[in-house]
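User: Okay, second chain of the day. Same drill as before: sequence in, C-alpha cells out.
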Amino acid sequence: MNAVPVVVVALIATLAISMILAIGIGAVAVTPGTIWDIIIGKLLGQEEIDGIPRNVVQIVWELRAPRVVLAAILGAALSVVGVAMQVLVRNPLADPYVLGASSGASVGATLVILFGSFGLGSLGISLAAFVTSALTMAVVYLIAQEGGRLTPMRLVLSGVVIGYVLSAITSLLVFWGDPRAAQQVLFWLLGGLGRARWAVLWLPATVLLVVALRMMMISRQLDAMHAGDEAATTLGVPIAWRRAELFVITALLTGVMVAISGAVGFIGLVIPHITRLLVGGLHVRVVPISLLFGALFMVWVDVFARWLIAPQEIPAGVLTAIIGGPLFLALMRRRGRTQRGLG
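Assistant: Same drill. C-alpha cells below.
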C-alpha cells in the first residue's frame, strides 16, 4: 500500500496534537499555546517560564505531561506485544493474557507490593514483574512442547490454564497480605497511570524502542511465520530461534508495562486486529501503525478515565475492557460477514 507512509505521518501528527490537548484537559484547563511554551522552556532547562504561574508549570510538567507520555508508551507497547503474540500462536485473538504473561507479571508485582522490594523501590516491581512474566512464559513454552515441536493450539491452551492458576495465586496473596496493601494491589490490578513520573519513563520507553526496532528488522520473517511453519521453513526462517525471541520480547515488554501501569487489557487484542483490517497483514506496516494507533487510543482512554467522573478517576483497565470488548465483537462480526460475502 503506497499510502502507508502518509498514514504513518498522519498518525504521528494526530498523536502529537492529541497529547498536547490531553495535557490541557483537567480541573485546571491549560491552553495548547501555554503547554507548548512550558515544554519548550523545560527542554531548554528553564526553571521559571515567563508569564506563566508556577503552579500551572508544575501541573503541566510534573503531573500531566509524564502521565500522557506514559499513556502513549503503554498503548504502543501493548499493541506491539499483541502483534508479537499473534505471530507466535498464529491466532489473531491472542494477546498478553492468552499466554499467561500478564498474569505472571501480576504475581511478581503483587509480591513486591505486599512484602517489600528489598530497597529497590519501583525498580523492584519492574524487576519482579519481568522475572515472573519470563518464568511463566518459559513454563508455558515447556508444557506446550509435544515431541520436540511447538504447536499454536497447545501454546494457547497451556497459556490459558497457567494464566488462570496465576490469577488464583495473585488472589490468594491479596487474601493473605496486609489489608491496607491489598487495597493498593486491587487498584493496581485494575490498571492506572497515576504513578507516572519522568524518572520512571526511561525504562519502558527504552524497552519499547528496542523491541519495536527489532520487530521491524524481522518483519519479513514474521510474515512467513504468520503464514505457517511450512512456508517459513521454505523461506529459510529459523523458526525455533524466532519463537524463542518472540517469547523473550513478549515477557520483557509485558513485565515492564504491567509493573508500571498494572493490568490493562484488550489493547493488544483489538489494536493489531483493527490495523490489519486497515492496512493488510504485512508486518512492515502492521508494527509501526499498531504502535502509533495504540498510543493514540491509550492517550484518549486516559483522558476519559480522568474526566468522566472527575474528581475521581476510573481505572484505565476498566475503561479499555468496556471499550475494547464490544469493539472487538463488532470487528469479529464484520469480519465474519465479509468472509461470507455479505458485505
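Residues 54-89 form the longest helix (36 residues).

User: Thanks, on to the next one.
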